[in-house]
Design goal:
The chain has helices at residues 2-39, 43-49, 68-78, and strands spanning 57-60, 63-66, 83-88, 94-99, 102-115, 118-132, 138-147. With 154 residues, the protein is of the alpha+beta class. Strands 1, 2, 3, 4, 5, 6 and 7 form a 7-stranded mixed sheet that branches.
Length: 154
Amino acid sequence: MRRVAMAVALVGLLWTAPARAEAEVAARDLYGRFVAAQNAHDFAAVRATLLDSPRFLWVTNGLTVWGPDAAIARMQGFHANEIWRIDPDWARARTASVTPDTALLHVPLVLTVGRIAAPDRYRILVTAVCARGADGAWRIAALLTADENPEAPR
């Protein structure tokens, strides 16, 4: 009986491995589009990457922002700076599928913001909850951000 249970579990893992890999690739692709849209200051494209629901969540700098419209409004305020650029550290990014339709993407990044002559650079950790909707499209359902600890090993 134990062997049968182990065989069933193994088959289940092998069967879902492609779905997990698909979710992880989709999360990276989605976040890449989100970053490219932000770097282009294209808020319509940024908005298109976010879950179209008041349940979209962004936790940033000790604030909770609910809904994509509130998130876009906050982002637009940041983009008033002379320079605003996100540079993900894709080599350190990690993904974890939760279900075939949900994945977490954890990516360290450098945010360059401020005056062109003397910009500030912040090291930030972002965890994006990415989910495939009923329409089959992947969207960011939540963004959880924190400053990266400068003492943490890289």
